[in-house]
Design brief:
Shape: globular
Strand content: 5-15%
Structural class: alpha+beta
CATH class of the largest domain: Alpha Beta
CATH architecture of the largest domain: 2-Layer Sandwich
Largest sheet: 5 strands, antiparallel
Helix content: 40-55%
Order of helices and strands: HHHHEEHHHEEEHEEEHHHEEEHHHHHHH
């Protein structure tokens, strides 16, 4: 296949492909994890979905009610691009066969627009504003997979992990903050099998690029008293909530491999420089090999260029900022809400390098402690809604304490506390806290 992100080869029979993929999907659900006839991007997504979902027909949950959704999306950066989305995709969404959808970086649908008949069909599978359509909650689908891999992609019919979604075909592209490279969400077009062509993928990619340009031309001035990026910075590394970091430098954005991501993060944490021996311990612990470390650094130098990396000691030559450094700066300034908004997830979560693991625990611990100390209901709720905080029993207990009597969220919080306490072998969360 010439383009791995497009669902069908030129001239392929859609009906036959649906049957072929459907058979592979059933074999996969029966335990055959080898799916050679399936695109690698889909096979990898199926494996992630299977790890996260016990039921392949699970319906995407609705996380944001009407009032919360209105408040959340009004403040979301992609709200500024909504008129552009409607200009570029509105005609397609109004033809009765297609939907336009926008999700945030967690896969929560912010807007779903289209003709009434298409919207009603989508409602049957909870493809509605406020629902969570990341892979962990809805399985393989274009917006969820696009944010998982940070790349535009088509998902065709039976390539969807959930059977209830296999009547649809969709194409989605991720959207980034043009100043920081941070993932903001994705733009998606959903409809029939005829969307499985290069044009639909090109359309959502062009729309995402136009949105990033629009956001870049309307960047808001930072709030008084703090900057998320210090002056004089020449580039930025984004490493929170993703296994492979991205580097924005010289007007270009590149994705780093896993080991290069670890090295760049470690060098950013030590601007004074690091010896090869120190980097070896940071990467491999006691199993470090000087030859292996030198080889990795040599490959990194070739990838970044001499203008970015120097040796003796190893350090980054250019002034680079990073999203995880922005979080710690904001915490130092007491800007807990801004730090939580900047935090896209744990630092390189797939890394087991000792130096990265220490940094990850430190950042997570500092942010969590600040959220708990704030006793701010909105901050506690935001932490619990995020994937890394959904099972945090202590935060659920603190959240329950700040809810006013009679609040609709109190029964939900109490039920979640009992559920987690049982999973952790405790009688109840309230007994654990001594109340």
């Amino acid at each position: 296949m010439a383009n791995p992100w497009i669902a069908l080869d030129h001239g392929a029979d859609p009906a036959e492909r649906i049957r072929q993929v459907g058979r592979a999907h059933e074999r996969f659900l029966s335990g055959d994890l080898v799916v050679p006839q399936i695109r690698s991007v889909v096979a990898e997504s199926w494996r992630r979905s299977a790890d996260a979902l016990s039921d392949p027909d699970r319906t995407a949950p609705i996380e944001l009610g009407d009032d919360e959704l209105a408040e959340y999306r009004a403040a979301h950066p992609l709200a500024r691009a909504l008129p552009l989305f409607r200009d570029l995709l509105g005609g397609l969404a109004e033809d009765g066969d297609h939907l336009m959808a926008v999700c945030d970086a967690y896969g929560r649908l912010l807007w779903v627009e289209g003709a009434g008949s298409a919207l009603r069909r989508a409602e049957r599978m909870n493809f509605v504003p406020g629902a969570r359509w990341d892979e962990q909650h809805a399985g393989t689908n274009a917006p969820g997979t696009a944010i998982a891999i940070d790349h535009s992609v088509q998902i065709f019919a039976t390539e969807h992990f959930s059977r209830s979604v296999q009547r649809w075909t969709c194409a989605a592209a991720p959207i980034h903050d043009p100043g920081t490279g941070r993932l903001l969400g994705a733009i998606d077009v959903t409809g029939g099998d005829h969307l499985a062509n290069p044009n639909s993928l090109a359309l959502v990619r062009a729309t995402a690029m136009a949105a990033e340009a629009r956001l870049g031309s309307h960047r808001l001035a930072p709030a008084a008293g703090f900057e998320t990026t210090p002056p004089g910075v020449a580039g930025r590394v984004t490493a929170l909530g993703r296994d492979e970091a991205t580097l924005t430098f010289g007007g270009a954005r590149r994705r780093l491999g896993r080991r290069h991501s670890e090295l760049v993060v470690l060098l950013l944490a030590h601007p004074e420089g690091r010896t090869g021996e120190e980097l070896g311990l940071d990467l491999y612990g006691d199993a470090a090999s000087p030859v292996t470390v030198r080889a990795e650094l040599s490959r990194l130098r070739r990838a970044l260029g001499p203008e970015l990396l120097e040796s003796r000691p190893y350090r980054l030559r250019a002034a680079l900022d990073a999203d995880f450094r922005a979080v710690t700066r904001l915490l130092e300034q007491g800007r807990v809400a801004q730090a939580l908004a900047e935090y896209a997830g744990p630092l390189l979560p797939g890394s087991d390098a000792p130096g990265v693991t220490r940094m990850r625990r430190l950042i997570d611990g500092q942010l969590r402690a600040a959220v708990l100390a704030s006793r701010d209901r909105a901050l506690l709720r935001a932490w619990l809604r995020a994937p890394w905080g959904a099972d945090d029993l202590h935060v659920w207990e603190e959240y329950a304490k700040v809810l006013p009597p009679g609040a609709p969220a109190r029964p939900l919080a109490a039920g979640r506390i009992r559920q987690l306490a049982a999973e952790y072998g405790l009688a109840t969360g309230l007994q654990r806290s001594g109340n």
